[in-house]
């Protein structure tokens, strides 16, 4: 097996969103498609490796957030089989609700950020149950149900490697700062911690993060990320108990994360990259929504 990291150059910026091309025997698998806005870049990256889009017959998406699966329908329309969580399949076949919801959030920025999400032909979408396997060439992809960031989230296990989507967090350019992916509306810290514990028990040698790249200090990364999930949850719960407004919580969340990132040596420029990938205001809303529902 050979794994290629394809940088999708999101918003013309390197190191924010990755897709992974796995060569096995004479077959190819693509893990994550990125948004529709980066599809031209993905196709160019694929061609730079000596392949054409028609060579990709298997596409795995960890979940249906637009930065991970926005271009999945295009690949399905080219004839690739797209594999996803059972709760994600209907949204790939009919992405209209997903797109309408995103458009309400992003308004005039929607097309520039995310582009178009095409519907996938139903027969080209395969929902995988937990622990269900798909063989591609000489390797086997196993779907692990890993909720916490989203209820419809899979990680994909290949031997001693794991393609983690968002369940192992965001870590850009090998930075020691770990940013908790906590976008609303499905952030669920108990489920999240349980998913990270499952990854820890897997004793993987490599993680491949969508945001961004290969991680080899797997046990340390996952152990620290587990703590980070609990930390942001407790911070927001405390601020809510103190009577803070949503705006105050958003401000405190941003200040706390910025101070933590700066303490690890993160530069102001790198902090802005983290904000582009996983904005603290969005994450504060995600954690607050969970605490409101689970006081």
From TrEMBL:
Gene3D superfamilies: Ribonuclease Z/Hydroxyacylglutathione hydrolase-like (3.60.15.10). Residues 16-211 form the Metallo-beta-lactamase domain. It comes from the Bacteria. Coiled coil: none annotated. Pfam families: Lactamase_B (PF00753). PANTHER family: METALLO BETA-LACTAMASE SUPERFAMILY LIPOPROTEIN, METALLO-BETA-LACTAMASE DOMAIN-CONTAINING. This is MBL fold metallo-hydrolase. It comes from Prosthecobacter algae.
